[in-house]
Amino acid sequence: MEIAKSLQQTPSSYIREILAAASDKNVISLAGGLPDEKTFPIDLMKPTLETLSEMPEVFQYGATAGYTPLLNFLTDYFQLPDTHIAMACTGSQQGLDLIARAYVNPGDKVVMEAPSYLGAMQVFGLVQADIVTVPQTEFGPDIEALRTVFYEQSPKMFYAVPDFHNPTGVCWSLETRKQVAALCEQYNVALIEDAPYRELRFSGEAIPLVSDFCPQHSIVLRSFSKIASPGLRVGIVSGKRSYLEPLIKIKQGADLHSSVPMQALLLGLLKHDNFDYHIDTIRTLYKSRYETLYSELQDKLPEGCEIKPVDGGMFVWVTLPSCDTFKLAKELLKDGVAVVPSPVFYPQPEAAKAALRLNFTNATPTELAEAVSRLASGLAKAI
């Protein structure tokens, strides 16, 4: 049986392939976006785990939109406007997939920053969207380029990760957030705001969501994979009711509903008295690891390489002199360090500037230091 044309046009995930290779115990992986499993709040979840056996109702079929007590809690927790509702998904990645399936026809224009999140490119590729990119600055998307794209191409939506962007780590400035929101309202473009790293800020003050400035023109994707556990597979999508009702309709046909016991477990975790302390502990740990990686890179990177500081998230972006980054990544893997080359984060890989994405959350300080030594040695030979 022939597979669908949309899938034929979707390349296999380089990151999945390199992570498989990086499973070798002799390889230090800076490639994945994995939280440290030592941060999983299992102790905080134990009270709820122990009471689930006394809650037979959560083992029955549930509402497609999600477990009502969790959704009620999150409506207050996220301070959603009265016009908005929330729904639970099997990870925020499913939420993105539902948005694409509900709203994007083949050929519809979807705007993204370049570089951008690989998983989003795959989702929009499967629905055969026409992905249009705008450059990124240290403050967020190039506003004039975005304005031009909105005016000339009338896109349906703008997908973005404003807080600690994947892959670059950039956090949009307050002014950029306001300008993007104003453009979305002016040109009637829906903002799809992906916020999986927002809680991982370890320096500076929190900045309002972009969607706070255009609440009637936005959908927000939130994840608990980075602050609770990826294995829970619970993400939350929120937006005005008319935006979310089509997503609920599609989800009903996709999987009926996400796991109700896992939603109940998440609710117990979020209501635990020590949950805020748990978040602070994660931030402290990741800040320490980031500082180790950043310091080692500054000391050891060859001339011509550049790294910009970040205030949170899971990644740093190292720009390089012009070179074949795929070839470089393969050679580095032979040297025992896994990284992700920049072309995988561009819809048109040939347009990618030479760079590497490095993750700092799932390696010890000793491993980070050794990885940078191997990286620096490989770069010295390659460039």
UniProtKB/TrEMBL annotation:
CDD domains according to UniProt: AAT_like
Segments forming domain Aminotransferase class I/classII large: 27-375
EC nos: 2.6.1.39
Keyword Transferase appears in the UniProt entry: yes
PANTHER family reported for this sequence: AMINOTRANSFERASE, KYNURENINE_ALPHA-AMINOADIPATE AMINOTRANSFERASE, MITOCHONDRIAL
Keyword Transferase: yes
UniProt entry keywords in alphabetical sequence: Aminotransferase, Pyridoxal phosphate, Transferase
Gene3D superfamilies: Aspartate Aminotransferase, domain 1, Type I PLP-dependent aspartate aminotransferase-like (Major domain)
Single GO BP term: alpha-amino acid metabolic process
Example GO molecular function: pyridoxal phosphate binding
Source species of the chain: Grimontia celer
Name used for this protein in its record: 2-aminoadipate transaminase
InterPro entries membership: Aminotransferase_I/II_large (IPR004839), Class-I_PLP-dep_aminotransf (IPR050859), PyrdxlP-dep_Trfase (IPR015424), PyrdxlP-dep_Trfase_major (IPR015421), PyrdxlP-dep_Trfase_small (IPR015422)
